[in-house]
Amino acid sequence: MAEPGTTDPDLPAGRPSGLLGKQIAGYRVEGEIGRGGMAVVYRARDLRLDRTVALKLLAPELARNDTFRKRFAHESRVAAAIDHPHIVPVFEAGETEGLLYIAMRYVAGQDLRALLDREGPLPPDKAARIALQVASALDAAHAHDLVHRDVKPGNILIAAGIDSDRPEHAYLTDFGLTKKSLSLTGFTSVGQFVGTLDYVAPEQISGKPVDGRCDVYSLACVVYETLAGVPPFRRDDDMALLWAHQYDPPPPLTGERPGLPAGLDDVLAKALAKSPEERYGTCLEFVSEVRAAVRDAETGRDRGRDRRRRSVPGTPPPPPGPPPEPPRWAMPVFRGRL
Ligand SMILES: Nc1ncnc2c1ncn2[C@@H]1O[C@H](COP(=O)(O)OP(=O)(O)OP(=O)(O)O)[C@@H](O)[C@H]1O
Ligand SMILES: [Mg+2]
């Protein structure tokens, strides 16, 4: 049994945890940042190094699940080993008093979920900039044989960028910390929170082995939402949503938000293919196609504008008529043939 005030069995249930001011594994809890379905994230003071960190405390039920614990230990180690500008650095992951915790860089900003809720669909160039950063993080993880499995707006943190060319800096977080695969193998009992199913790949749903291409699918769902304001599939209940991921074609992006570059429809359709073999091989391949479609649309618009600028108002082009007569010097050539 845990000591009162250190571990709270109701941690992710939405009640204040009473941990403020408490010391957990060398960190003093200073304030709650937010909570998801399986964890609470606090702003905390690393007492050894005297710096602010984000301290994530996982729900005690997860510590009791052996599969989760093993994967948590393995994946936190791998995630901590990846040094990438768009992956939240993990400082420490461990267990104390039956509670799994992760200490990581505190990212001042908001997550992409909050940004979309506040601003709605993003301008295509901004959406493409964020997608590029997340794609580079995912491909780096895949190069370490690490599949994220839970790419979604809530796991993409957006901080201020360094200059006007890069106005935002995206960080990917929460590698391997998904309950979805566990729930699908019977871990989650009826009524427990599984998390959003808006971004889950068909092969995850059917319990097949997953590789980096499941992250390509989820990233495509996120990119779709950043551009359209809604994820590709919306259904009234979870079963229907899972069915849609498995069998329904995604609605064209331009149908959701007319005015978006038409070239994006094919790119998104390929990234959202039901079969991993039919998707882009890497996240960067997918996002470079997204950027090309956005750029082409801009260039097309510019070309149109240039044409309008070059033409003199009031002098319409001559109407098509019969071809002009050949010049006199060419007559000997044509005589006798025409
Ligand atoms: N390193 C960090 N720095 C600052 N804020 C963070 C950090 N990591 C997570 N957060 C914030 O903490 C909150 C809770 O995160 P958490 O991962 O528990 O939930 P989630 O990803 O939204 O949902 P889920 O439980 O489905 O994963 C989010 O609002 C997130 O933006
Ligand atoms: Mg998260």
Automatic annotation (TrEMBL):
UniProt KW Lipid biosynthesis keyword: no
InterPro entries documented for this protein: Kinase-like_dom_sf (IPR011009), Prot_kinase_dom (IPR000719), Protein_kinase_ATP_BS (IPR017441), Ser/Thr_kinase_AS (IPR008271)
Keyword flag Kinase: yes
Biased composition (Basic and acidic residues): 295-305
One Pfam short name: Pkinase
Residues that span the membrane, as ranges: none
Official protein name in the record: non-specific serine/threonine protein kinase
Protein kinase domain sequence ranges: 27-294
Coiled coil: none
Positions contributing to ATP binding: K56
Region (Disordered): 295-338
Organism: Streptomyces purpureus
